[in-house]
Amino acid sequence: MVFSIERRKQDIKALKEETLDVLIIGGGITGAGTALQASASGLKTGLVEMQDFAEGTSSRSTKLVHGGLRYLKNFDVEVVADTVQERAVVQGIAPHIPKADPMILPIYDEPGSTFSMFSLKVAMDLYDQLASVTGTKYANYTLTKEEVLEREPQLKSEGLLGAGVYLDYRNNDARLVIENIKRAAADGGHMLSRMKVVGILHDENNKASGATVEDLLTGETFDIKARVVLNSTGPWSDTIRQMDTKLDTVPQMRPTKGVHLVVDRKKLHVPQPTYFDTGKNDGRMVFVIPREEKTYFGTTDTDFKGDFAHPTVDQEDVDYLLEIVNNRYPSAEITIDDIESSWAGLRPLISSNGGSDYNGGNSKPIKDESFDKVISTIEQFQKGEVDRYTVEDVLKNIETGNSESEDNPSAVSRGSALDIDEDGLITVAGGKLTDYRKMAIGAMKAVIEVLKNDFNVTYELIDSAKYPVSGGEINPQEVDEETDKLAQLGIEKGLNESEATYLAHIYGSNAPKVIALIEEVEQIEGLTLADTVSLRYAMDEEMALTPADFLIRRTNHMLFMRDTLDGIIEPVIAEMARYYGWTDEAKAAHTVKLNTAIAESDLKKLKGDGNR
After folding, report:
1. Cα-atom radius of gyration of the chain, to the nearest Å?
2. Interval 502-538: pLDDT, tens
3. Are 286 and 260 in contact (CB under 8 A)?
4. The model's pTM
5. Given CB 3.0 to 4.6 Å as the disulfide criterion, which of 152, 199, 207, 295 pairs with 212?
6. Chain-centre distance of CA 86, in angstroms?
């Protein structure tokens, strides 16, 4: 399967001529997962994304397939059971991506602690039963204070009571998206990035029947016709609905911003992912996670009203995270100058659902004086002194006392919603990355029902729990053994062990295709042999159209290999310019865009160093 710019041209031609069964707007994890199911089920499927695949929310997560242990504080068994079971499914269909990586959760004797040692053990035992890992090597256990400090000597010892260790999974969020996209494309789906929706089409009955799109590579505008239109644009969900001239919609999205910061592991060394209360008695928890030779930590959770396409790290975000991490790891003494890279992303929260997945969502119980607060807040709103979100927060607390306790009858997973507007536009929004496949199932059932009822076309939905993504055709029970075999293929072709292992982990069952390129391409000066074949594969079969696509989302080079990034920028750009036949002007424009992204990741503006 070739998924390159030539394939893109063919897909555009097809979209101009065909009437699709479903047009999916949005190429994040939910859109990608839905496209996989639609294409595999035989639907004529198209997907358009105005940026790169996963460029928005789906490449800016905490990079975990998280189990939701925190919900068990309130014995929310159903939610955790659903989450860990779905996590196991994702690990089965994409075994080269989520990798088991047990989490350590230190407990401190301080106000507002999420768990005590006793309640943590109870929660972990229940969690293990729900995750079916009781009695296995991944079963939970507790550590004494001394054992915790032996494992993580930089941790603050004052007030430390001990810790629990339980199963969790690290993830490569952007890779999970592209592997879903590639599988959908292999099954005949037309998957297009840099294709912006500028209008919703309607038929003679005023039903949504496609979209007008602008090709951001060429500037061409054309119509795509479809029987069903599915909006899976995350934070942009309201934008698409408001673009629909046949709708009079009330905004439902309330995006919040999450920030992560990366430092060298020599500065902050943790042997395994670590998860703890902020120590601020604010109901939130923070992750500190080792990755490559780095350590990253986050996240924040603040309302965001800026440019959805361009969330940035602010000084307040840095101050908040550094205060928390330096309090927990006093000897680290991390400053902003130690931050090597960073990312900011938006959570596509639904206003009526309130809290985010495993951070935030910490509404307080109702107090007697809260009624007076509601009256006062509404008066302030009428005077223009506060916004609607402030009113919603107060009302939500009055009505439920807990921002996550309301049952949404249309929800297809925790914190998500599936809506069908009067003109037939389907919107799936909210939710967590772990639940992407279930959200896609809910959306696909709605699509198939419309096709049957309105168009007399019948499709049977595939069992996506057993349908691997691209690269996922390896035994999930023997991931380590099969990955070692794939790495050996690379070693036999001249890669060193580290390079071969890296390619095996990132590409899974597609690794032999990548390794085979060693025989076809000449090593690029300035790049390792592994980077050379990885770049070619990204352009040939992963629709990497810009240097940022390759260095940020097809690989994590900008985030976790910052030490070697500067040295490979020029050869990567030069090779892509040669491959795509860029003019000098186009090459310069791509260089500027990449350098801007790197400067933002490096926090140059906050560091006050334009030459760094």
Report:
1. 24
2. 999 999 999 999 999 999 999 999 999 999 999 999 9
3. no
4. 0.90
5. 199
6. 16
Domain presence at residue 69 = no
330 touches 268 (CB < 8 A): no
- Which pLDDT score is estimated for 398? 45
- How far is the C-alpha of 573 from the C-alpha of 554, rounded, in Å? 15
**Do 523 and 502 contact (CB within 8 A), yes or no?**
no
Banded pLDDT at 305 (limits 50, 70, 90) = confident
Amino acid letter, residue 27: G
Q: In this structure, which amino acid lies at residue 612? A: R
The predicted-structure confidence for 563-601, as pLDDT tens digits, reads as follows: 999 999 999 999 999 999 999 999 999 999 999 999 999
Residue 363's alpha-carbon distances to 256, 280, 392, 397, 452, in angstroms, are 15, 15, 12, 6, 43
Q: What letter represents residue 152's amino acid? A: E
Check whether residue 270 and residue 149 sit in a common domain: yes
Same domain, 238 and 248: yes
Q: What's 13's domain CATH number? A: 3.50.50.60
Which pLDDT band, with edges at 50, 70 and 90, does 412 fall under? Answer: very low
Assess whether 272 and 334 both reside in one domain.
yes
Mean pLDDT calculated for residue range 468-474: 97
Judgement on whether residues 441 and 310 belong to the same structural domain of the protein: no
Degrees to nearest 5, angle at CA 123 with 117 and 126: 140
* Residue 388 burial (10 A CB sphere; 0-12, 13-18, 19+): exposed
**Distance set, CA 572 to CA 201, 246, 505, 536 (Å):** 40, 46, 22, 10
Kindly state the tokens that stand for 89: 């499914």
- The answer to whether the bond into 299 is cis (omega within 30° of 0) is yes
- In the block, tokens 């938006």 appear at 346
For 541-570, write each residue's pLDDT tens digit: 999 999 999 999 999 999 999 999 999 999
Instruction: Mention every residue, 6+ apart, whose C-beta is less than 8 A from residue 189.
Output: 35, 36, 38, 39, 45, 46, 47
Residues 6+ apart with CB under 8 A from 153: none
- The H or E element that residue 257 is part of is strand 256-264
For residue 45, give every residue at least 6 positions away whose Cβ sits within 8 Å of its Cβ, in sequence order, or none: 20, 21, 22, 24, 35, 38, 39, 184, 188, 189, 190
Nearest to residue 195, comparing CAs of 437, 38, 16?
16
Question: Strand, coil or helix: what is 599?
Answer: helix
Residue 262 and residue 246 in one domain = no
Tokens standing for 171?
Answer: 């993830």
Q: Is residue 86 part of a domain?
A: no
Q: Which two tokens stand for residue 609?
A: 């160093």
Count Cβ atoms below 10 Å from residue 331 Cβ, excluding itself.
10
Predicted confidence (pLDDT) per residue in 239-269, tens digit: 999 998 888 878 888 889 999 999 999 999 9
pLDDT in tens, 104-157: 999 999 998 999 999 999 999 999 999 999 999 999 999 999 999 999 999 999
The reply to whether 557 falls in a domain is: yes
| Enclosing domain of residue 394 | 370-400
204: tokens are 């003679």
DSSP 191-216: EESSEEEEEEEE-TTS-EEEEEEEET
Cβ atoms of residues 464 and 184 within 8 Å: no
Sign for the CA dihedral angle at 264, 270, 271, 272 comes to negative
The answer as to whether 197 is a domain residue is yes
Per the CB < 8 A criterion, the answer to whether 212 and 201 are in contact is yes
In the block, residue with structure tokens 């992560």:
260
